[in-house]
Amino acid sequence: MSILDKIHKPADRPIVCTVLGDAGTGKTSLAATFPNPVFIRAEDGLQAIPMDDRPDALPVVTDVAELWDQLGALIKEEHDYKTVVIDSVTALERLFGQHIIDSDPKKPKSLNQAIGGYGAGFQAVSTLHQRVRKAAELLANRGIHVVFIAHADLETIDLPDQEPHSRYSLRLHKRSVAPYVDDVDAVLHVRLKTYVMGEEGKRKAISDGTRIIVCHAAASSISKNRYRITEELPFELGANPLAPYVPTLQADS
Question: Are the CB atoms for 46 and 56 separated by under 8 Å?
Fold first, then answer.
């Protein structure tokens, strides 16, 4: 058989995506709209969701071993969950950093000094994030959607052909960002719709509480998607704005 005989049109697969935003913008509520979710919690963000609507969750992880145990169980054991939400990768960054420090026999005072310094500690944290992303791929191969939640931060972009400018990114060390941006189907930035009012020198930002989702390429955000979404999406609590665009979400609804 020729290798060319294996050419085919790849089938639609579960979505693996990242949701980022400032505190209180509804990241967890958005993740809860995915089909039959279960939460892996490095922080407890589910209190914002009323008990009647609150999704299932595993115990809050306190060390790296518990995280691998929970991911391993969801990958290997039989269950009816269709989405795994990791809340949040920002909290995992802190957990991973402390794990690297505690595992170093020289007992460094900070991640900068861990594993001999020169950025080795941050690279070790990045490797753990890559392991989380690999687990997400194994879950997707089982037909399970994966949602990573991240806190937003600002970074300065200094390109050779443009003026320096700021954009929203993930609150992670730069070495830890790639698994949740480069190799996912969508990065959804949840934010308040904001208006700037007033005269020069007396301007202030106001909002009526309306939330929007930016998941297309934009200079102001690290957002992206693979579903031909080119405009901001409205965000209404209880509804998944990606459902009309993602075939596998439609099949699971």
Answer: no
For residue 116, the enclosing domain spans 3-252
Q: What are phi and psi of 234, to 5 degrees?
A: -70, 150
DSSP, residue by residue, 184-195: SSEEEEEEE--E
CB of 90 closer than 8 Å to CB of 28: no
Listed residue (243, 252, 215) closest to 231, CA to CA: 215
Task: State pLDDT tens for residues 25-45.
Answer: 999 999 999 999 999 999 998
**Termini Cα distance of the chain:** 39
Structurally, the chain folds into a number of domains equal to: 1
The amino acid occupying position 135 is A
The answer, yes or no, to whether residue 214 has pLDDT greater than 90, is yes
Compute how many other C-beta atoms are within 10 angstroms of the C-beta atom of residue 58. Answer: 17
Centroid of chain to Cα 179: 9
Dihedral (CA of 223, 225, 228, 232) sign: negative
DSSP state, residue 26: S
Listing DSSP states for 109-124 in one string gives SSGGGGGGSTTHHHHH
pLDDT tens digits for range 166-179: 999 999 999 999 99
Residues with Cβ within 8 Å of residue 27, at least 6 apart in sequence: 19, 20, 21, 45, 88, 149, 150, 190
**CATH number of the domain within which 204 lies:** 3.40.50
Instruction: Please report, rounded to a whole number, the percentage of residues in the chain having pLDDT higher than 70.
Output: 95
Which tens digit of pLDDT belongs to each residue from 78-101?
A: 999 999 999 999 999 999 999 999
Where is pLDDT greater, at 74 or 116? Answer: 74
Of 214, 222, 193, 188, give the one whose Cα is nearest residue 205: 193
